Amino acid sequence: MKTPFLTKAQAQAIAMDYPTPYYVYDEQGIRENARRVREAFSWNAGFREYFAVKATPTPGILKVLGEEGCGLDCSSLTELMMAERCGFRGDKIMFSSNETPAEEYVLASKLDATINLDDFTHIDFLKDTIGYIPETISCRFNPGGVFTLGHSKEGFQVMDSPQDAKYGFTREQLFEGFRKLKAMGAKHFGIHAFLASNTISNDYYPVLAAILFKLAVELHQETGCHIAFINLSGGVGVPYLPDQPENDIQAIGQGVRQQYEQILVPAGMGDVKLYTEMGRYMLAPYGALVTEAIHAKHTYKEYIGVDACAANLMRPAMYGAYHHITVLGKEDAPCDHMYDVVGGLCENNDKFAIDRMLPEIERGDLLFIHDAGAHGHAMGYQYNGRLRSAELLLRPDGDVKLIRRAETPEDYFATVLWD
Ligand SMILES: *Cc1c(COP(=O)(O)O)cnc(C)c1O
301: Cβ–Cβ under 8 A, 6 or more apart, which residues? Predict the structure, then answer.
Protein backbone atom coordinates (compact mmCIF):
# COMPACT_ATOMS: atom_id res chain seq x y z
CA MET A 1 0.00 0.00 0.00
CA LYS A 2 1.50 3.31 -1.06
CA THR A 3 0.16 6.56 0.31
CA PRO A 4 0.78 9.89 -1.42
CA PHE A 5 2.32 12.61 0.73
CA LEU A 6 -0.06 15.09 -0.87
CA THR A 7 -3.86 15.36 -0.77
CA LYS A 8 -5.97 16.13 -3.80
CA ALA A 9 -6.78 19.55 -2.35
CA GLN A 10 -3.09 20.32 -1.88
CA ALA A 11 -2.23 19.12 -5.37
CA GLN A 12 -5.02 21.24 -6.87
CA ALA A 13 -3.97 24.30 -4.90
CA ILE A 14 -0.40 23.88 -6.15
CA ALA A 15 -1.64 23.52 -9.74
CA MET A 16 -3.25 26.98 -9.48
CA ASP A 17 0.24 28.50 -9.17
CA TYR A 18 2.35 25.90 -10.98
CA PRO A 19 0.58 24.14 -13.83
CA THR A 20 0.89 20.37 -14.15
CA PRO A 21 2.99 18.42 -14.73
CA TYR A 22 5.14 19.24 -11.72
CA TYR A 23 7.54 17.47 -9.42
CA VAL A 24 6.98 17.85 -5.71
CA TYR A 25 9.29 16.75 -2.88
CA ASP A 26 8.39 16.10 0.73
CA GLU A 27 10.96 17.94 2.87
CA GLN A 28 9.79 16.33 6.11
CA GLY A 29 10.13 12.86 4.60
CA ILE A 30 13.61 13.64 3.25
CA ARG A 31 14.79 14.94 6.62
CA GLU A 32 13.33 12.08 8.66
CA ASN A 33 14.87 9.51 6.34
CA ALA A 34 18.27 11.24 6.42
CA ARG A 35 18.11 11.15 10.23
CA ARG A 36 17.29 7.44 10.19
CA VAL A 37 20.32 6.82 7.97
CA ARG A 38 22.57 8.83 10.28
CA GLU A 39 21.21 7.01 13.32
CA ALA A 40 21.71 3.58 11.71
CA PHE A 41 25.43 4.29 11.28
CA SER A 42 25.95 6.43 14.37
CA TRP A 43 28.10 3.65 15.87
CA ASN A 44 30.80 4.72 13.38
CA ALA A 45 32.30 8.01 14.53
CA GLY A 46 33.26 9.26 11.07
CA PHE A 47 30.19 8.12 9.16
CA ARG A 48 28.93 10.37 6.40
CA GLU A 49 26.36 9.98 3.63
CA TYR A 50 27.45 11.71 0.42
CA PHE A 51 24.23 12.18 -1.51
CA ALA A 52 24.68 11.17 -5.16
CA VAL A 53 23.94 14.49 -6.86
CA LYS A 54 23.08 12.84 -10.17
CA ALA A 55 19.92 11.39 -8.60
CA THR A 56 18.41 14.83 -7.89
CA PRO A 57 20.67 17.71 -8.94
CA THR A 58 18.52 20.44 -7.46
CA PRO A 59 20.04 22.97 -5.05
CA GLY A 60 16.83 23.24 -2.99
CA ILE A 61 17.17 19.52 -2.23
CA LEU A 62 20.96 19.50 -1.77
CA LYS A 63 20.69 22.24 0.85
CA VAL A 64 18.14 20.27 2.87
CA LEU A 65 20.44 17.25 2.83
CA GLY A 66 23.41 19.45 3.74
CA GLU A 67 21.49 20.66 6.79
CA GLU A 68 21.04 17.01 7.77
CA GLY A 69 24.80 16.50 7.74
CA CYS A 70 25.17 14.94 4.30
CA GLY A 71 27.99 15.66 1.91
CA LEU A 72 27.68 15.37 -1.87
CA ASP A 73 28.94 12.78 -4.32
CA CYS A 74 29.66 14.55 -7.60
CA SER A 75 30.64 12.99 -10.89
CA SER A 76 30.83 15.80 -13.42
CA LEU A 77 31.97 19.39 -13.81
CA THR A 78 28.53 20.91 -13.45
CA GLU A 79 27.74 18.77 -10.41
CA LEU A 80 30.93 20.07 -8.79
CA MET A 81 29.95 23.64 -9.72
CA MET A 82 26.52 23.12 -8.22
CA ALA A 83 28.02 21.68 -5.03
CA GLU A 84 30.29 24.73 -4.74
CA ARG A 85 27.41 27.15 -5.24
CA CYS A 86 25.42 25.30 -2.56
CA GLY A 87 28.26 25.85 -0.09
CA PHE A 88 29.83 22.39 -0.09
CA ARG A 89 33.59 21.96 -0.28
CA GLY A 90 36.53 20.05 1.19
CA ASP A 91 35.65 16.73 2.78
CA LYS A 92 31.94 17.44 2.16
CA ILE A 93 32.48 16.54 -1.51
CA MET A 94 33.35 13.12 -2.87
CA PHE A 95 34.32 13.20 -6.52
CA SER A 96 33.59 9.78 -8.06
CA SER A 97 33.74 10.03 -11.81
CA ASN A 98 34.97 7.91 -14.69
CA GLU A 99 36.55 8.76 -18.03
CA THR A 100 37.24 12.02 -16.24
CA PRO A 101 38.10 15.12 -18.28
CA ALA A 102 41.07 17.07 -16.96
CA GLU A 103 39.01 20.17 -16.10
CA GLU A 104 36.97 18.12 -13.63
CA TYR A 105 40.06 17.09 -11.65
CA VAL A 106 41.15 20.72 -11.68
CA LEU A 107 37.90 21.92 -10.12
CA ALA A 108 37.74 18.97 -7.71
CA SER A 109 41.21 19.80 -6.43
CA LYS A 110 40.42 23.51 -6.21
CA LEU A 111 37.44 22.62 -4.02
CA ASP A 112 39.63 20.26 -2.00
CA ALA A 113 37.15 17.48 -2.72
CA THR A 114 38.09 13.90 -1.96
CA ILE A 115 38.97 12.37 -5.31
CA ASN A 116 37.97 8.77 -5.97
CA LEU A 117 40.04 7.44 -8.88
CA ASP A 118 38.31 5.08 -11.29
CA ASP A 119 41.41 3.65 -12.94
CA PHE A 120 45.10 2.96 -12.41
CA THR A 121 46.08 5.22 -15.32
CA HIS A 122 44.30 8.12 -13.65
CA ILE A 123 47.05 8.24 -11.02
CA ASP A 124 49.50 9.72 -13.53
CA PHE A 125 46.71 11.62 -15.29
CA LEU A 126 45.76 13.31 -12.03
CA LYS A 127 49.38 14.14 -11.19
CA ASP A 128 49.95 15.55 -14.67
CA THR A 129 46.71 17.52 -14.51
CA ILE A 130 46.87 19.16 -11.09
CA GLY A 131 50.59 18.85 -10.39
CA TYR A 132 50.40 16.78 -7.21
CA ILE A 133 48.73 13.81 -5.56
CA PRO A 134 46.41 14.88 -2.73
CA GLU A 135 47.19 13.60 0.77
CA THR A 136 43.79 11.95 0.91
CA ILE A 137 42.88 9.84 -2.11
CA SER A 138 40.44 7.07 -2.86
CA CYS A 139 40.33 4.27 -5.44
CA ARG A 140 37.34 2.45 -6.84
CA PHE A 141 37.54 -1.33 -6.67
CA ASN A 142 36.02 -3.77 -9.16
CA PRO A 143 36.30 -7.38 -7.98
CA GLY A 144 35.29 -8.80 -11.37
CA GLY A 145 33.29 -11.99 -11.58
CA VAL A 146 29.64 -12.14 -10.67
CA PHE A 147 28.32 -10.61 -7.47
CA THR A 148 25.53 -12.49 -5.72
CA LEU A 149 23.84 -12.18 -2.39
CA GLY A 150 22.13 -15.52 -2.63
CA HIS A 151 18.64 -15.66 -1.22
CA SER A 152 18.15 -13.19 1.54
CA LYS A 153 15.37 -13.80 4.01
CA GLU A 154 13.13 -11.48 2.00
CA GLY A 155 13.43 -13.96 -0.83
CA PHE A 156 15.16 -11.63 -3.28
CA GLN A 157 18.30 -12.54 -5.09
CA VAL A 158 20.63 -9.76 -6.10
CA MET A 159 23.03 -10.40 -8.89
CA ASP A 160 25.27 -8.16 -10.86
CA SER A 161 28.26 -8.64 -13.09
CA PRO A 162 31.18 -6.48 -11.99
CA GLN A 163 33.21 -8.23 -14.71
CA ASP A 164 31.09 -6.46 -17.30
CA ALA A 165 31.16 -3.10 -15.55
CA LYS A 166 33.47 -0.41 -16.91
CA TYR A 167 34.30 0.91 -13.45
CA GLY A 168 37.16 0.52 -11.06
CA PHE A 169 40.60 -1.02 -10.49
CA THR A 170 41.22 -4.75 -10.52
CA ARG A 171 42.48 -6.23 -7.29
CA GLU A 172 46.10 -6.32 -8.51
CA GLN A 173 45.88 -2.75 -9.76
CA LEU A 174 44.58 -1.63 -6.40
CA PHE A 175 47.61 -2.99 -4.51
CA GLU A 176 49.99 -1.53 -7.07
CA GLY A 177 48.04 1.71 -7.16
CA PHE A 178 48.17 2.20 -3.39
CA ARG A 179 51.95 1.64 -3.40
CA LYS A 180 52.38 4.08 -6.24
CA LEU A 181 50.14 6.72 -4.69
CA LYS A 182 51.95 6.37 -1.38
CA ALA A 183 55.29 6.87 -3.10
CA MET A 184 53.84 9.99 -4.75
CA GLY A 185 52.85 11.51 -1.41
CA ALA A 186 49.39 10.19 -0.54
CA LYS A 187 48.92 9.62 3.20
CA HIS A 188 45.30 8.63 3.74
CA PHE A 189 43.46 6.15 1.55
CA GLY A 190 39.90 5.29 0.77
CA ILE A 191 38.37 2.25 -0.92
CA HIS A 192 35.14 2.52 -2.89
CA ALA A 193 32.95 -0.06 -4.65
CA PHE A 194 29.48 -0.13 -6.17
CA LEU A 195 28.49 -3.68 -7.08
CA ALA A 196 24.69 -3.80 -7.37
CA SER A 197 21.88 -1.36 -8.05
CA ASN A 198 18.50 -0.86 -6.42
CA THR A 199 18.95 -3.75 -4.00
CA ILE A 200 16.01 -4.75 -1.84
CA SER A 201 17.95 -6.68 0.75
CA ASN A 202 19.32 -5.85 4.15
CA ASP A 203 22.36 -7.93 3.18
CA TYR A 204 23.79 -5.87 0.32
CA TYR A 205 25.78 -3.39 2.37
CA PRO A 206 26.96 -5.97 4.94
CA VAL A 207 28.14 -8.39 2.22
CA LEU A 208 29.86 -5.57 0.32
CA ALA A 209 31.34 -4.26 3.57
CA ALA A 210 32.84 -7.65 4.41
CA ILE A 211 34.55 -7.78 0.99
CA LEU A 212 35.93 -4.26 1.37
CA PHE A 213 36.93 -4.65 5.01
CA LYS A 214 38.97 -7.81 4.26
CA LEU A 215 40.55 -6.05 1.32
CA ALA A 216 41.36 -3.04 3.51
CA VAL A 217 43.13 -5.23 6.05
CA GLU A 218 45.23 -6.85 3.33
CA LEU A 219 46.00 -3.53 1.69
CA HIS A 220 47.06 -2.08 5.01
CA GLN A 221 49.22 -5.07 5.89
CA GLU A 222 50.86 -5.41 2.49
CA THR A 223 51.35 -1.77 1.52
CA GLY A 224 51.52 -0.07 4.90
CA CYS A 225 48.97 2.49 3.67
CA HIS A 226 46.68 4.14 6.21
CA ILE A 227 43.12 3.22 5.26
CA ALA A 228 41.11 6.22 6.37
CA PHE A 229 37.69 5.39 4.98
CA ILE A 230 35.63 2.82 3.15
CA ASN A 231 32.91 4.03 0.83
CA LEU A 232 30.00 1.64 0.32
CA SER A 233 28.66 3.93 -2.42
CA GLY A 234 25.03 3.62 -3.58
CA GLY A 235 22.80 0.76 -4.54
CA VAL A 236 20.41 0.56 -1.59
CA GLY A 237 17.03 0.35 -3.21
CA VAL A 238 13.44 1.30 -2.60
CA PRO A 239 10.32 -0.81 -3.17
CA TYR A 240 8.76 0.61 -6.32
CA LEU A 241 6.06 -2.09 -6.21
CA PRO A 242 3.38 -1.70 -3.56
CA ASP A 243 3.81 -5.23 -2.22
CA GLN A 244 7.63 -5.25 -2.13
CA PRO A 245 9.31 -5.27 1.27
CA GLU A 246 11.26 -2.22 2.37
CA ASN A 247 14.91 -2.12 3.29
CA ASP A 248 15.43 -1.69 7.02
CA ILE A 249 18.24 0.83 7.30
CA GLN A 250 18.69 0.13 11.02
CA ALA A 251 19.24 -3.57 10.27
CA ILE A 252 21.59 -2.66 7.43
CA GLY A 253 23.65 -0.44 9.75
CA GLN A 254 23.85 -3.20 12.34
CA GLY A 255 24.80 -5.76 9.68
CA VAL A 256 27.70 -3.54 8.60
CA ARG A 257 28.68 -3.00 12.23
CA GLN A 258 28.94 -6.74 12.78
CA GLN A 259 31.40 -7.08 9.88
CA TYR A 260 33.32 -4.04 11.08
CA GLU A 261 33.74 -5.52 14.54
CA GLN A 262 34.67 -8.94 13.17
CA ILE A 263 37.14 -7.82 10.53
CA LEU A 264 38.46 -4.30 11.04
CA VAL A 265 38.56 -3.96 14.82
CA PRO A 266 40.69 -7.10 15.44
CA ALA A 267 43.13 -5.83 12.78
CA GLY A 268 43.61 -2.64 14.77
CA MET A 269 41.63 -0.66 12.18
CA GLY A 270 38.77 0.50 14.39
CA ASP A 271 39.30 4.10 13.25
CA VAL A 272 38.20 3.52 9.64
CA LYS A 273 35.37 5.88 8.67
CA LEU A 274 32.42 4.61 6.72
CA TYR A 275 30.86 6.55 3.88
CA THR A 276 27.80 5.93 1.74
CA GLU A 277 26.73 7.57 -1.52
CA MET A 278 23.07 6.74 -1.68
CA GLY A 279 20.90 8.56 -4.17
CA ARG A 280 17.76 6.53 -4.65
CA TYR A 281 17.33 5.58 -1.01
CA MET A 282 17.66 9.20 0.10
CA LEU A 283 15.18 10.70 -2.32
CA ALA A 284 13.08 8.35 -4.49
CA PRO A 285 10.08 7.89 -2.16
CA TYR A 286 10.01 11.58 -1.23
CA GLY A 287 9.44 12.93 -4.72
CA ALA A 288 6.46 12.55 -7.03
CA LEU A 289 5.44 13.63 -10.49
CA VAL A 290 1.92 15.08 -10.49
CA THR A 291 0.18 15.07 -13.84
CA GLU A 292 -3.35 15.72 -15.09
CA ALA A 293 -5.43 13.28 -17.08
CA ILE A 294 -6.25 15.30 -20.19
CA HIS A 295 -7.65 12.66 -22.52
CA ALA A 296 -9.32 9.27 -22.43
CA LYS A 297 -9.00 7.19 -25.58
CA HIS A 298 -10.84 3.97 -26.36
CA THR A 299 -9.37 1.92 -29.19
CA TYR A 300 -7.97 -1.60 -28.87
CA LYS A 301 -7.13 -0.65 -25.31
CA GLU A 302 -8.22 1.97 -22.80
CA TYR A 303 -5.76 4.85 -22.70
CA ILE A 304 -5.51 7.73 -20.29
CA GLY A 305 -3.46 10.53 -21.82
CA VAL A 306 -1.67 12.71 -19.29
CA ASP A 307 0.15 16.02 -19.64
CA ALA A 308 3.48 14.53 -18.51
CA CYS A 309 5.53 12.28 -20.74
CA ALA A 310 8.74 10.27 -20.74
CA ALA A 311 10.67 13.53 -21.12
CA ASN A 312 9.58 14.30 -17.54
CA LEU A 313 10.14 10.80 -16.16
CA MET A 314 12.11 8.44 -18.31
CA ARG A 315 12.41 5.33 -16.14
CA PRO A 316 9.29 3.50 -17.35
CA ALA A 317 10.19 4.07 -21.02
CA MET A 318 13.88 3.36 -20.53
CA TYR A 319 13.85 0.40 -18.15
CA GLY A 320 10.23 -0.69 -18.14
CA ALA A 321 10.38 0.49 -14.53
CA TYR A 322 7.23 0.27 -12.44
CA HIS A 323 6.04 3.48 -10.81
CA HIS A 324 2.98 3.25 -8.66
CA ILE A 325 0.14 5.65 -9.50
CA THR A 326 -2.49 7.04 -7.16
CA VAL A 327 -5.46 8.92 -8.56
CA LEU A 328 -5.73 11.73 -6.04
CA GLY A 329 -9.09 11.90 -4.31
CA LYS A 330 -9.81 8.30 -5.31
CA GLU A 331 -7.45 6.65 -2.85
CA ASP A 332 -10.21 4.40 -1.53
CA ALA A 333 -12.08 3.77 -4.77
CA PRO A 334 -11.93 0.23 -6.18
CA CYS A 335 -9.24 -0.36 -8.82
CA ASP A 336 -11.66 -1.88 -11.31
CA HIS A 337 -10.52 -0.25 -14.57
CA MET A 338 -7.54 -1.34 -16.62
CA TYR A 339 -5.61 1.44 -18.34
CA ASP A 340 -2.47 2.29 -20.17
CA VAL A 341 -1.41 5.67 -18.80
CA VAL A 342 0.46 7.40 -21.58
CA GLY A 343 2.33 10.58 -22.40
CA GLY A 344 2.36 12.48 -25.64
CA LEU A 345 5.76 11.65 -27.13
CA CYS A 346 5.78 10.22 -30.64
CA GLU A 347 7.31 7.08 -29.18
CA ASN A 348 5.22 4.06 -28.35
CA ASN A 349 7.25 3.39 -25.19
CA ASP A 350 5.94 6.63 -23.65
CA LYS A 351 3.76 4.79 -21.14
CA PHE A 352 3.79 5.40 -17.40
CA ALA A 353 1.73 2.27 -16.87
CA ILE A 354 0.58 -0.64 -19.00
CA ASP A 355 -2.49 -2.73 -18.15
CA ARG A 356 -2.66 -1.05 -14.74
CA MET A 357 -5.72 -1.55 -12.55
CA LEU A 358 -6.82 1.87 -11.33
CA PRO A 359 -10.02 3.58 -10.23
CA GLU A 360 -12.11 5.02 -13.05
CA ILE A 361 -10.24 8.10 -14.29
CA GLU A 362 -12.01 11.21 -15.53
CA ARG A 363 -10.51 14.10 -17.42
CA GLY A 364 -9.12 16.57 -14.94
CA ASP A 365 -8.11 13.96 -12.38
CA LEU A 366 -4.65 14.45 -10.93
CA LEU A 367 -2.35 11.43 -10.94
CA PHE A 368 0.39 11.11 -8.34
CA ILE A 369 3.28 9.10 -9.78
CA HIS A 370 5.18 7.73 -6.81
CA ASP A 371 8.89 7.25 -6.12
CA ALA A 372 10.07 9.76 -8.70
CA GLY A 373 12.32 11.70 -6.33
CA ALA A 374 15.57 10.15 -7.57
CA HIS A 375 16.67 9.60 -11.17
CA GLY A 376 13.34 11.24 -12.12
CA HIS A 377 13.52 14.91 -13.10
CA ALA A 378 17.27 14.42 -13.35
CA MET A 379 16.92 12.15 -16.37
CA GLY A 380 14.52 14.52 -18.11
CA TYR A 381 15.19 15.54 -21.66
CA GLN A 382 13.67 17.60 -24.44
CA TYR A 383 12.84 15.10 -27.15
CA ASN A 384 9.86 16.12 -29.26
CA GLY A 385 10.31 19.66 -27.94
CA ARG A 386 8.80 18.64 -24.62
CA LEU A 387 10.04 20.72 -21.74
CA ARG A 388 11.07 19.76 -18.25
CA SER A 389 8.67 20.50 -15.44
CA ALA A 390 8.99 22.63 -12.35
CA GLU A 391 10.24 21.21 -9.05
CA LEU A 392 8.54 22.19 -5.82
CA LEU A 393 9.42 21.60 -2.21
CA LEU A 394 6.56 20.85 0.18
CA ARG A 395 7.81 22.39 3.41
CA PRO A 396 7.14 20.77 6.79
CA ASP A 397 4.67 23.60 7.56
CA GLY A 398 2.69 22.87 4.40
CA ASP A 399 4.00 25.81 2.38
CA VAL A 400 5.17 25.10 -1.13
CA LYS A 401 8.40 26.55 -2.45
CA LEU A 402 9.46 26.65 -6.07
CA ILE A 403 12.99 25.21 -6.29
CA ARG A 404 13.24 24.96 -10.08
CA ARG A 405 10.92 26.66 -12.52
CA ALA A 406 9.49 24.86 -15.51
CA GLU A 407 11.40 25.25 -18.76
CA THR A 408 9.95 27.65 -21.29
CA PRO A 409 10.16 27.65 -25.08
CA GLU A 410 12.81 30.39 -24.70
CA ASP A 411 14.97 27.90 -22.77
CA TYR A 412 14.49 25.38 -25.54
CA PHE A 413 15.51 27.88 -28.21
CA ALA A 414 18.33 29.45 -26.20
CA THR A 415 21.09 27.33 -27.71
CA VAL A 416 19.88 27.62 -31.29
CA LEU A 417 21.62 29.76 -33.93
CA TRP A 418 18.85 30.77 -36.30
CA ASP A 419 21.01 31.72 -39.26
C1 LIG B 1 24.71 6.45 -9.29
C2 LIG B 1 25.76 6.46 -8.24
C3 LIG B 1 25.41 6.47 -6.88
C4 LIG B 1 23.98 6.44 -6.39
O5 LIG B 1 23.33 5.26 -6.70
P6 LIG B 1 21.87 4.95 -6.12
O7 LIG B 1 21.52 3.66 -6.75
O8 LIG B 1 21.00 6.08 -6.52
O9 LIG B 1 22.00 4.85 -4.65
C10 LIG B 1 26.43 6.51 -5.97
N11 LIG B 1 27.73 6.53 -6.33
C12 LIG B 1 28.11 6.52 -7.62
C13 LIG B 1 29.55 6.57 -7.97
C14 LIG B 1 27.14 6.48 -8.63
O15 LIG B 1 27.51 6.46 -9.90
Answer: 340
The dihedral formed by the CA atoms of 216, 217, 221 and 223, expressed in degrees to the nearest 10: 0
**CB half-sphere exposure, 100, CA atoms < 13 A:** 31
Residues 89-117: pLDDT tens digits? Answer: 999 999 999 999 999 999 999 999 999 99
Nearest C-alpha neighbor of 400 from the set 83, 36, 12, 58: 12
β 390-394/366-369 pair status:
unpaired
Is 326's C-beta closer than 6 angstroms to any atom of ligand 1? no
Tell me if 55 CB under 6 Å of ligand 1.
yes
The single-letter DSSP state of residue 388 is: P
Whole-model pTM?
A: 0.96
Residue 27 to residue 328: CA distance in whole angstroms: 20
Digit-coded pLDDT (tens) for 376-411:
999 999 999 999 999 999 999 999 999 999 999 999
Number of continuous H segments (helices) and E segments (strands) in the chain: 12, 19
Of 80, 194, 236, 286, best ligand 1 pocket probe by most atoms within 8 Å of the beta carbon? 194
d(CA 104, CA 92): 17
Question: What's phi and psi for 184, nearest 5 deg?
Answer: -90, 0
Cα(192) to ligand 1 centroid in Å equals 11
Distance (Å, whole) CA 194 – CA 151 = 20
**pLDDT the model gives residue 151:** 59
> Is the bond leading into 245 cis (omega within 30 degrees of zero)?
no
Question: Which pLDDT does position 148 carry in this prediction?
Answer: 85
pLDDT at residue 147 is higher than 90: no
Amino acid in position 279: G
Specify the 3-state DSSP secondary structure of 362: coil
